[in-house]
Each structure stands twice: as C-alpha cells, then as structure tokens.
C-alpha cells in the first residue's frame, strides 16, 4: 500500500491511519482553566484531524519515526493550546495476516477527561480509515491488564473485541466488516490524511500473536 498525503473530499477516495509507540505513553500537556473549557463542553464540538507541526503534541517515546498523530482539537482554544487529546497510529501489513492499523498512546488532556473525547477521537479515526481505505481489515491496540484505569470497557463499547494476549498485554481488535463498523460516523469533514507504514518488531510480533494467518485463496 502506497504512502501518500491525501486531501479527503465528501466523496473520499483514499485515506489512512496509523498508530504506534509503546502502550500507555502519556502526554504532558498544560491544563487550561475551567473558564477556557466552558467555551466547548462536548467532545462532538471538537475538530478531529492529523496533527500539524504547530500542534503541541509531545511523546516520551515513539514506536517508530514513521508513525503519525491523530488529534482532537478545540477550535476556540488559545494559540498553542488546541490539542485536547491525541493518539499515535501506523499501518502494519503482512502476507496472510492482512492490513491493519495499530493504535497506541491514546491520551486525553486532564481538563478534557470524562467528556467523551477518547471515544470520539477513536471513532473518527476508524471512520476515516474505513471509508478511505476499504481494503483494510481493521485496527488493533493493546491494553495493560494491571492498569487500574484500564480503558478496555471504553474500547469494547466502541466495538473492539478481545483477541488474546501479546506479551503481558491484552489485545483488542476492531473489524471493518462488523456491525460496529456500520455505526461509525459518516459525516466526515474533508481533511488531509497520510498513512505511514511501520515494520517495528513489537507491532509485528503483536500482529502474529493476535491474529491467525489466512491461507491465500
């Protein structure tokens, strides 16, 4: 699958997503005041897109230099403070295992938590992937089972299903041919998306751990 920068239109032709970095990397982004967050109080009012160089998205560690960030942005925020949430993603493709998007490092800024940002951000990313690249099989991610604030129930509500263990993590997958995929957003604003491919050994091993190889037809 080619890597390209795509400007999506209402009749989306090609588009992509990506994930990657070690699970549970947290962002250190300065909180805004309650007065600021009162301007927008609902995750559906945020903008969702790929991160721009000007966005304040930092990571302690990235899975691969070829991964990209997808962000939830507050359009009313002060300059330099628009990012309410972010995740990292990348394409992983292997013969007989299909083409998948690995999602990692899902994080929401402290003053935006418990407002549905993570749910909307992931759904928007999945929707762009499914509509722009119908050849993709779906997306997968890992959950730290010992994390007291594990988001696995959030992922299950979106439509991710448990796939098993990879290392000491719990793996979950979202299938684009599932009934949950039929409920993804369809009113997607045009946005530029790019699809980086990762060959990171950790992601490759995770793919092999979670999915059975499919014999070629």
Automatic annotation (TrEMBL):
**What does the record give under GO molecular function?**
acyltransferase activity, transferring groups other than amino-acyl groups
Record's superkingdom?
Eukaryota
- Membrane-spanning residues: 6-29
N-acetyltransferase domain: which residues? 27-182
- Record keywords: Membrane, Transmembrane, Transmembrane helix
InterPro entries membership: Acyl_CoA_acyltransferase, GNAT_dom
- Listed Pfam families: Acetyltransf_1 (PF00583)
This chain's protein is named N-acetyltransferase domain-containing protein
Q: What is the lineage of its organism?
A: Eukaryota, Sar, Alveolata, Perkinsozoa, Perkinsea
